[in-house]
Amino acid sequence: MANSYKDLRVWKQSVDLALEIYRYTQDFPKHELYGLTSQLRRAAVSVSSNRRGQRQVVRQRVDSVSVLAQPEMEKRRSPLV
Question: Which of 25, 46, 52 is nearest to 36 (CA)?
Fold first, then answer.
């Protein structure tokens, strides 16, 4: 059992996701810096923050960051299409 949220695989994956989104949004147009770019970055950070705050939920057999990130990312999907 994990001693800390930082030991949880799902938390580590969510941090990796946030870093990947930051790298990806680096190339977005500057006029999107306070719009879509900011929204995507906040959503990515939110995923790991939510996992830290809901450790009990994570312990209840959640083994994939994609399952946890789905609600946050669905909110951001429509502006990307």
Answer: 25
Structural domains of the chain in order of their starting residue, each with its CATH number: 5-80 (1.20.1440.60)
Q: State the DSSP code for 4.
A: S
The alpha carbon of 18 is separated from its chain's Cα centroid by a whole number of angstroms, namely: 5
What pLDDT sits at residue 23?
A: 93
Residue-by-residue DSSP string for 5-54: GGG-HHHHHHHHHHHHHHHHHTTS-GGGTTTHHHHHHHHHHHHHHHHHHT
pTM, to two decimals: 0.57
Name, in order, each residue with C-beta under 8 angstroms of 1's C-beta and a sequence gap of 6 or more: 59
